[in-house]
Specification:
Elements (H helix, E strand, L loop, with lengths): L3 E13 H9 L18 E5 L2 H13 L6 E15 L3 H21 L21 H25 L9 E6 L16 E6 L5 E5 L9
Parallel strand pairs: 3-4
Antiparallel strand pairs: 1-2, 1-3, 2-5, 3-6, 4-5
């Protein structure tokens, strides 16, 4: 009953300037991330209402030589049927899928993938979320298979495919001495159904008012 997220939100995507300009001019030509360590599974990623963090991410990639000119792309998003890990319902759901996946790996005599630290991460935040990505993609794939089976058997399905995933992440060191607030904490959104992206924009610079 409360699974649909109908409200529009603003998301920011850190990227190279060429990617930003390409999507502004060709908004239907979207490439999604399929990295094995994607935090919320495969899709297009946005920092929810967090321009500064998106730019920091792009600048970090530029420092590492992965992009040339750091930039930020803005987007208007509607999350639709969202697997929202800020909702206890979906935390319980992903736990169930982890148990199913774990059982399958045990039967096959294989070890589950693990989240691991990125090289040089002094905070040990397990930034390479290989396990998380695998479990989320396992959930999506099982859901899609069930949907397709019901369509084939009954010409309709009561199974709902997720349009997006969303999660809150605590990351980085304390914001100040003794703090429980971490300096890189953020909400991240992964869009799977590109129809959830209502449009892209180039973020404006803030001006003084009045």
């Amino acid at each position: 009953m409360y699974d649909i997220r109908p409200n529009s939100i603003i998301g920011f995507h850190g990227c190279d300037l060429s990617v930003r300009d390409h999507l502004i001019n060709n908004p239907n030509n979207i490439e999604i991330s399929r990295e094995p360590h994607d935090w919320l599974g495969h899709g297009m990623y946005f920092w929810e209402n967090n321009y500064t963090r998106a730019m920091e991410w792009a600048e970090q990639k530029a420092t590492g030589g992965k992009i040339k000119n750091p930039a930020v792309l803005g987007a208007i998003l509607q999350l639709g049927h969202c697997c929202d890990f800020l909702d206890s319902k979906y935390l319980r759901l992903i736990k169930q899928y982890h148990e199913m996946m774990k059982e399958g790996y045990e039967i096959a005599g294989k070890n589950l993938p693990q989240n691991i630290d990125a090289t040089g991460d002094r905070h040990h935040d397990k930034l390479l979320r290989i396990l998380d990505c695998a479990v989320i993609e396992y959930m999506h794939n099982r859901t899609i298979k069930l949907y397709n089976k019901e369509i084939a058997d009954n010409d309709f399905s009561t199974t709902k495919i997720f349009d997006s995933t969303r999660g809150v992440f605590t990351e980085g060191g304390p914001a100040f001495a003794g703090a429980g607030i971490l300096e890189k904490s953020h909400i991240q959104v992964c869009i799977r159904n590109m129809n959830c992206i209502k449009g892209f924009f180039i973020p404006r610079d803030e001006i003084s008012f009045p």
